[in-house]
Amino acid sequence: MQYFRYQFTTPAEWRDVLLAYLGEMAFEVFEETENGLDAYLPESAAGPELDEAVEALRSQLEIDWQKELVPYQNWNEVWESNFQPVLVDDFCGVRAEFHEPLSGVQNELVIQPRMAFGTGHHATTEMMMRSMRDLDFVGKRVLDFGCGTGILAILAGKLGAAVIDAVDIEEEACTNSSYNAELNGTPHIRVFCGDLDAVPFARYDILLANINRNVLLDTMQAMSARLDPAGTLLLSGILIQDIPLISAAAAEQGLSVVRQLEQGDWACLTLRR
């Protein structure tokens, strides 16, 4: 799949506001840059209506923008030139196959550079891993919803989860997750391609969802239905300013926030019934 990258140039004081507006649109991934913000979405989700909505922001914000099509096959080059190992204290580390083994970490994750997203570099993924450190995965049933490269599912496996399902709407992500599961000695991870309905119905002790606000809101009821009554839901991909929206949607399903992590503009929530 190919992605459009929308490159926004804006003063630092406008970035949080811009991010809030873009979060209301169809963008899936955001990356801060030296001069502003880059926002990504699949080619199929882009269209004249989106460009009109983006252009309308000029009347409210101090921005310039342009977009470019980024072919999927270019991600390998991006990975190889930019990817650096990620360390979450001594709890875990994420590296590519071409890096030397990491020392001094309890859990080492090795990722094949096939995708640009879900590598552990973004604050949302790092906070998910930090939150996972405080949960007991031994013998548990786990679902990684929106698995990307599969690193959260793989980490769950290394922490002792007995049953692990993972799902992503992108075919490339599913292929990559399956490869990485084998690479890390966690072949019992089952990877499904599609939305949440692609996963055979089951109840999980721990459900991991690092996606984006709109998907989390749209699937809150479905996620709750798959969560064991005593289970734990970890959510990220959430802007701090959107916590009230997410919390309210979760409360409608009988879920309450028991822990909240924040890093930059982003938050990670741990919820239970």
Structure report:
The longest helix is centred in the middle third of the chain and has 13 residues, at 171-183. Helix 7 (213-225) runs parallel beside helix 8 (243-251). It contains eight helices and 14 strands. The protein is globular. 38% of the residues are buried. With 273 residues, it is of the alpha/beta class. It has helices spanning 15-23, 48-56, 75-82, 123-132, 151-158, 171-183, 213-225, 243-251; strands at residues 3-9, 29-32, 36-42, 64-70, 86-88, 92-96, 107-111, 141-145, 163-168, 189-193, 204-210, 227-239, 256-263, 266-272. The strands form three sheets. It has a seven-stranded mixed β-sheet, sandwiched between helices. The chain has a four-stranded antiparallel β-sheet with strand order 2-3-1-4, covered by helices on one side. 29% of the residues lie in helices and 33% in strands. It folds into two domains: 3-70, Alpha-Beta Plaits (2-Layer Sandwich), CATH 3.30.70; 85-272, 3-Layer(aba) Sandwich (Rossmann fold), CATH 3.40.50.150.
What key phrases describe this protein's structure?
single chain; 273 residues; alpha/beta; Alpha-Beta Plaits; Rossmann fold; four-stranded antiparallel sheet; 8 helices
* CATH fold-type name of the largest domain: Rossmann fold
Distance between the termini: 38 Å
Which range best describes the helical content: under 10%, 10-25%, 25-40%, 40-55%, 55-70% or over 70%? 25-40%
On the 0 to 100 scale, the average pLDDT is 90
DSSP helical segment count: 8
Radius of gyration: 18 Å
Note the beta-strand portion: 25-35%
Query: Which CATH class of the largest domain applies here?
Result: Alpha Beta
Low-confidence stretches: none
CATH architecture of the largest domain: 3-Layer(aba) Sandwich
Structural class: alpha/beta
Shape: globular
Sheet with most strands: 7 strands, mixed
Identify the CATH homologous superfamily of the largest domain. Vaccinia Virus protein VP39
The count of DSSP E runs of length 2 or more, i.e. the number of strands, is 14
H-E order: EHEEHEHEEEHEHEHEEHEHEE
Whole-number tally of structural domains: 2
Provide the spatial order of strands within the biggest beta sheet. Answer: 10-9-8-11-12-14-13
